[in-house]
Amino acid sequence: MRKLWPALLAVAAGLALIAQQNPDAGFTDTPLLPGLPYHVHDPYRPHPKVVRPGALPGQPPSDAVVLFNGKGLSQWTAAKLGTAAYTVSAGPARWKVGDGYFEVVPGSGDIATKRKFGDVQLHVEWMEPPGVTGTSQGRGNSGVFLMGLYEIQVLDSYHSPTYADGQAGAMYGQWPPLVNAVRKPGEWQTYDIVFEAPVFTEGRRTKSASMTVFLNGVLLHNHKEEMGPTIYRQVPKYKPGPSEGPIILQDHHNIVRYRNIWARPVGQYDEPEK
Ligand code: MG
Fold first, then answer.
1. Ligand 1 mean position, distance from CA 72 (Å)
2. Cβ neighbours of 176 (radius 10 Å)
3. 19 and 114, same domain (yes or no)
4. Which of 62, 83, 113, 166 is geometrically suited to a Cys-Cys bond with 52, CB 3.0 to 4.6 A?
5. How far is the CA of 2 from the centre of ligand 1 (A)?
């Protein structure tokens, strides 16, 4: 038995060394993935960083940029519509903050995040007032503009007719949503949006902007390309511009409420430069 101990210790040390070198019990005798320096099930492939999800569905995960948590508009500034694109002013956002929400003050102007985003995951909750009035584009109209340019429409489209590419969830003036999944006025609704920014290389567009959008958990747009920045009564047209912009909420002279707004810049896969 005494002679066995060194052998057992050597085996244990060997196993410990293998575990250290191959902590995930992966494989290095498998083929390389095409174009990548990693084997299939590679034990040395870097792991993604850990993100703690919100305690309840819809709550911000640990790495989110919280843009409104129910307590004030410190992350927002006033914005105004320019001739071709939104421009952000230095003035304070003048919308009304209530108990856990804020709402449009009609005529006070649009509001923009102080921070700019390119590719981004965005969560926004919104509600039409219970006694919403008006018709078509005048009935609870607001909007979420990615990069300050690309609108997902906010409107009361529960039982209110308007043109399809202008109803709630539309990529305004371009693509109606795949389905109408709106709730009644007076009920909170959720947008979960994945936006990809356009790419311009040496003044030429090499990638279009695109949107993936869920309304109340229902898919409205599946990586749908924008024809260009949102525009009224005209064909959209791209123009080279910056790779990031603010998220803007629209004052369309109607009262609409918002709450629980957060964003996560979209991460990159770990892959070699092409
Ligand atoms: Mg709008």
1. 23
2. 18
3. no
4. 62
5. 82
pTM: 0.89
Q: Are both 27 and 82 inside the same structural domain?
A: no
Give 252 Cα–ligand 1 centroid separation in angstroms.
6
- Asked whether residue 102 falls in the same domain as residue 184, the answer is yes
Ion ligand 1 residues within 5 Å by Cβ? 141, 143, 250
**CA–CA dist 220, 258 (Å, integer):** 20
Verify that 154 and 188 share a domain, yes or no: yes
Phi first, then psi, for residue 96 (nearest 5°) are -85, 130
The pair of structure tokens assigned to 258 is 């918002």
Query: What are residue 209's phi and psi, to 5 degrees?
Result: -70, 155
Q: Are 32 and 85 found together in one domain?
A: no
pLDDT digits (tens, 9 = 90+) for 111-156: 999 999 999 999 999 999 999 999 999 999 999 999 999 999 999 9
